[in-house]
Amino acid sequence: MIRRRALIISLPLTFAIGSVAVASPAVAAPAVPTARQAAAGWLARQMTDRSHFTEVFSGVTYPNQGGTIDAIFAFAATGTANDYGARAIAWLGRLHVLSNYIGNGTTSSYAGATAKLALAAEVTGLNPDRFGNAKKVNLLARLAKLLTKSGRYSDHSSYGDYSNAFSQSLAILAVSRHGHVPASAVNFLVASECPNGGYPLNFGQATCTADPDATGMDVQALLAVGRRHAAERGLRWLASVQRANGGFATSASAAPNANSTGLAGEALAAGGWLRRAALARKFLLSLQVGCAGKASKRGAIAYNRAGFAKSTAISATAQGILGLADISLAVLSSHGAGDGAPRLGCAS
């Protein structure tokens, strides 16, 4: 399941999967939206009840909290669909939606999910220390309890530990926006670096295999806490594996895809590698369905050059937008974003 490797946190199937702050006055959507705004508009129109995403396993429909947060990030990055983002963060605050994603805080707690939700709260202007519509949850306090002596943020669950590079980087990003990040957490992330300068998806492997998705996330986290030299090594590795068409792939033998390119491009922009980031944007734009496509697909970003597929386009669009917008997760904010779901300015 390639598309979860970016920002969607994988959990055991059983868990696969406050009040909302008053939004700033909405800014009117532009008459002719940009490509990334049109992508966000398409993404918004795919939501269930205009508030969240779901996914199906073995014929059963589950809430997709991680994918919903990806959309929140995408809306904030484009300054559009703020009304959809507000409904999405409110949906995430429902007790059953919340506990089935981050755990109940006693017998189960998931580091990546908790960190990602804390970051989403910060992006939308909510307090991660008091999150939820009814029973308030201190997301950062829960996250702090999941920090082990080694500096790794790890899951606490009878299902085992599913934490990885995304969990660690999301935790560092979330905590950095709300206070001081423990040095042990940053040092653990730096120590996971592979000999070639990239970062692995999973920790403690016999052979360290650098991963572009993980490296893109880790670079943003390291830049957020001032570890520039470690981040630069990751950026150099990303540049070394960028394809001639600007895209990034999950492995040397795989075709470039929107998800990996979105995260890598976002990291390159955050690190000031602007020419490389521009190449990533060019590749992402080549995957976007334009006015020649069916009206229902216009604005979407396909997963790869094979073309649009609904099963992968939602995730690819959400994460691809991050590479089009070039806004680091460390500073992303929905403040001042406009409402509505923009469409491409096509003649018909």
What does this structure look like?
By secondary structure, the protein is mainly α. 44% of the residues lie in helices and 3% in strands. It has 13 helices and two strands. A two-stranded antiparallel ribbon has the order 1-2. A hairpin with a 2-residue loop joins strand 1 (53-57) and strand 2 (60-64). The two termini are 36 Å apart.
Summarize the structure.
With 348 residues, the chain is mainly α. The protein has 13 helices and 2 strands; from the N terminus they run H-E-E-H-H-H-H-H-H-H-H-H-H-H-H.
What's the SSE blueprint?
Layout: H1 35-45, E1 53-57, E2 60-64, H2 65-78, H3 82-92, H4 95-102, H5 111-123, H6 139-145, H7 165-176, H8 183-191, H9 212-224, H10 228-241, H11 258-270, H12 274-286, H13 310-325
Antiparallel strand pairs: 1-2
Q: What tags apply to this protein structure?
A:
globular, 348 residues, single chain
Q: Helical segment tally?
A: 13
The share of residues in helices is 40-55%
Q: Which structural class do you get from the secondary structure elements?
A: mainly alpha
Q: Give unreliable regions as ranges.
A: 1-6, 10-30
Strand content: under 5%
Number of strands: 2
Distance between the termini: 36 Å
